[in-house]
């Protein structure tokens, strides 16, 4: 008696494409890079200086006054968002059985990811701690 045939996974495209291979490679590369970015972020914020007691509005304002930290946090935001979105896309492809359900779930996923990326990027690059001219933050006095 022969074993039943195994069906192809639903997440696989009908035509030959490198899209799934590229997303698989992206997940591995972004995962490694995220480990470096996140642990670097945690080390700088928690281990250097006064640790967790120094983290407040002024601390973030001081960090984001430096373009290096803006790019660091932007890379963390974008990689984490795209990494998570790709993982959820794979889960939707694997578990949503109806084509219409898959379409709407992925539409909501892409829309929400786009909104988070846009708003997060805007916050990082338009953050101004000196909106109040009477602010006592050191960053505001330097300007």
Automatic annotation (TrEMBL):
Keyword ATP-binding: no
Keywords associated with the record: Heme, Iron, Membrane, Metal-binding, Transmembrane, Transmembrane helix
Spans through the membrane: 25-48, 108-127
Pfam families per record: Sdh_cyt
Main localization, broad class: membrane
GO terms of molecular function: metal ion binding
Entry GO terms, CC: membrane
SUPFAM superfamilies assigned: Fumarate reductase respiratory complex transmembrane subunits (SSF81343)
Subcellular location: Membrane
Entry keyword Aminoacyl-tRNA synthetase: no
Protein name: Succinate dehydrogenase
